[in-house]
Design goal:
It is an enzyme of class 5 (isomerase). This protein has 304 residues and is of the alpha+beta class. The protein contains 7 helices and 20 strands. 20% of the residues lie in helices and 36% in strands.
Length: 304
């Protein structure tokens, strides 16, 4: 059985669940999980966890993301993207300077508040928001804080003019950020209705487009018996955390997942990784209730 992380390039038109379904067939295992939903209309990097790596899915889901989007000014939609029905339209001829755009983007960089769109998978009272939306209901949603690490205007136009204005941006952001909603927020600051015209996820955590393979590509690789060339080891997803070799003194304790005196690195990092022969064995965190101690958060049993 394969264990590791497959950086998949999800193609437009497929759901994340579609990808998992197809991969289970190609890889001949049920132990496959994705690391955060990408809408069907979005293409891009979707790390897939296989075998023991499914234990890391939450880490990869929580990792920062990078996107390239096209923002359209002049029309807003029910879904906040190009798939929805038009809600508001402003067909006046607009003139927006590069300086105006840069000021707006700077104002939306850092920690911002977003209200999840009605067409989203956020659950309220046990039901997903899009289920309410499909019945024509609008539900009150709590706002959430997200972080926009960088919001960059691409291209070099000095002035944008027309009844509809579009421009590309690059976004580095925290988990939970809705780029559709960010597009609407950009429009609001400019004083016009807006939506996200298109979106590509170019990076998820430390996985980029260059690392990725498509489903068709993977099928060919599997038929050639060369899956090890594209399935990355579990350790690849843990490079952000300090790593320490298991020693003779702590070998038995760590292998058995025992509580240990806290490692000094946990004063600055929320997790540390213990490895043996370059294989991740355990991830330790501060003990939540016992001061000065640490406990394993994840264990990775040896595999054949």
């Amino acid at each position: 059985m394969q264990h590791g992380i497959l950086p998949l390039w999800k193609e437009r038109g497929m759901t994340s669940h579609d990808c998992v379904f197809k991969l289970r067939k190609i890889l001949q295992t049920k132990k496959v999980g994705h690391t955060g939903t990408l809408d069907p209309g979005v293409e891009g990097v979707l790390p897939i966890c296989i075998g023991n790596a499914t234990r890391l899915a939450e880490y990869l889901t929580d990792a920062g993301k990078m996107y390239e989007a096209v923002i359209s000014i002049g029309t807003s939609t029910t879904t906040e993207d190009a798939e929805g029905e038009i809600v508001e339209e402003n067909d006046s001829v607009k003139t927006i300077t590069r300086e105006q755009l840069l000021t707006v983007l700077e104002g939306l960089t850092g920690e911002i508040s977003q209200t999840p769109p009605m067409y989203s998978a956020v659950k309220i009272n046990g039901r997903k928001l899009y289920e309410y939306a499909r019945q024509g209901q609008v539900i009150e949603r709590p706002s959430r804080k997200v972080t926009i690490y960088a919001l960059e205007l691409l291209g070099d136009k000095a002035v944008y003019e027309g009844a509809t204005i579009t421009f590309p941006v690059r976004i580095a952001c925290s988990k939970g950020t809705y780029i559709r909603t960010l597009a609407v927020q950009i429009g609001e600051k400019l004083g016009y209705p807006a939506h996200m015209a298109s979106l590509i996820r170019t990076a998820s955590g430390n996985f980029t487009k260059e690392d990725c393979v498509t489903i068709d590509g993977l099928r060919e690789i599997a038929e050639a018996g060369e899956l090890s060339k594209v399935i990355m080891p579990i350790e690849q997803a843990l490079t952000d955390y300090p790593t320490f070799q298991i020693t003779e003194d702590n070998h038995k304790q760590i292998i058995n997942g025992q509580v240990l005196p806290m490692h000094s690195s946990l004063a600055e990092h929320d997790k540390i990784v213990f490895v043996e022969n370059e294989r991740a064995v355990a991830i330790y965190i501060k003990h939540p209730t016992k001061e000065g101690l640490m406990k394993p958060e994840k264990m990775f049993p040896a595999v054949d």
